């Protein structure tokens, strides 16, 4: 089986999520990477160095410059004659492109695969991760997204694949790029951070979140996450949300501060290696999955902890 793996990049480097997608695709067979963008030659060279990638297809066109899924999906479909599978990481961008590819190919998408049990048999989460389903695809072409926390990252160096240019349909005329507001942070990116500190509704407001969570995260060099309640209340922007409808993380250490542990939140962090919970309610469900629990008022315990670090 030969897979076309969609490469997520910033024109210069390849995102870690793609390295996990490459590992998954390599378990199916040969891996060809697709780098689509504008002025993204450096990213194509980086993709060519990923261990396990046998070839890189580079589609450099203004139409792909801002990663508009409406333009990239037809590009992928035009290339799929040579491939058995299209694999993307289950990131926000991957989840925007892959279903369009599946629809245009008239096949079912297998979403968020956790493991590969056979050439066409996969496990994937359902019911917010409370049930793991084993599914088999009988479609002529496989379209799948990969849960990045379930697959180790392929080595970013060691490969030496050839880079070939390809052209697609260009602008599909369905959407146009207006602007982007990109949050800049000195802190590690949430989905790749080794330590994550997350805050919940209990922080009371944006100022509480800033005063309690951020200093602890900075002391630990951690990424910052939040529950949906904290995001909905405007303490932090949406892209901080961890959970079923947010980001999926599996850091070495996850510190949940004032988070009750609703199943939708657990769906996004329960695979973390060590879970530490700070909550004043000893019956909070988060303590059922926590490795270390502290029953305390966060407004006292967290500043004390931060000061001692
Ligand atoms: P709460 O449940 O209100 O918990 C606050 C906790 O803080 C309590 O346990 C309390 O004991 C503790 N606390 C209060 N004061 C203090 C203090 N001073 N010191 C210490 N502890 C204190 N949620 C997500 O997080 N992510 C998702 O992706 C997500 N997706 C959802 C999708 C759907 C379809 C639905 C229906 C819900 C979803 N939710 C999601 C919402 C989820 O059900 C919960 O409502 C949410 O996670 C609760 O957030 P919380 O734990 O911050 O708040």
- What letter string, H or E per element, gives the SSE order? EHEHEHEHEEEEEEEHEHEHEHEH
Average pLDDT value? 96
CATH topology of the largest domain: Rossmann fold
- CATH domain class name of the largest domain: Alpha Beta
Each distinct ligand = flavin-adenine dinucleotide
- Find the count of extended strands (DSSP E, 2+ residues): 15
Main β-sheet description:
7 strands, parallel
| Shape category | globular
Strand order of the largest sheet: 5-9-4-1-2-3-10
Number of helices: 9
CATH architecture title of the largest domain: 3-Layer(aba) Sandwich
Describe the structure.
By secondary structure, this protein is an alpha/beta fold. The chain is 28% helix and 26% strand. The protein is built from nine helices and 15 strands. The protein has helices spanning 16-28, 41-48, 69-79, 92-105, 206-220, 228-232, 263-266, 286-289, 298-308; strands at 2-6, 30-37, 53-60, 85-89, 109-113, 115-118, 121-126, 131-136, 142-146, 162-165, 195-199, 223-226, 253-257, 274-279, 292-295. The strands form three sheets. The chain has a seven-stranded parallel beta sheet with strand order 5-9-4-1-2-3-10, sandwiched between helices. The longest helix has 15 residues, at 206-220. The mean pLDDT is 96. Flavin-adenine dinucleotide binds next to helix 6, helix 7 and helix 9.
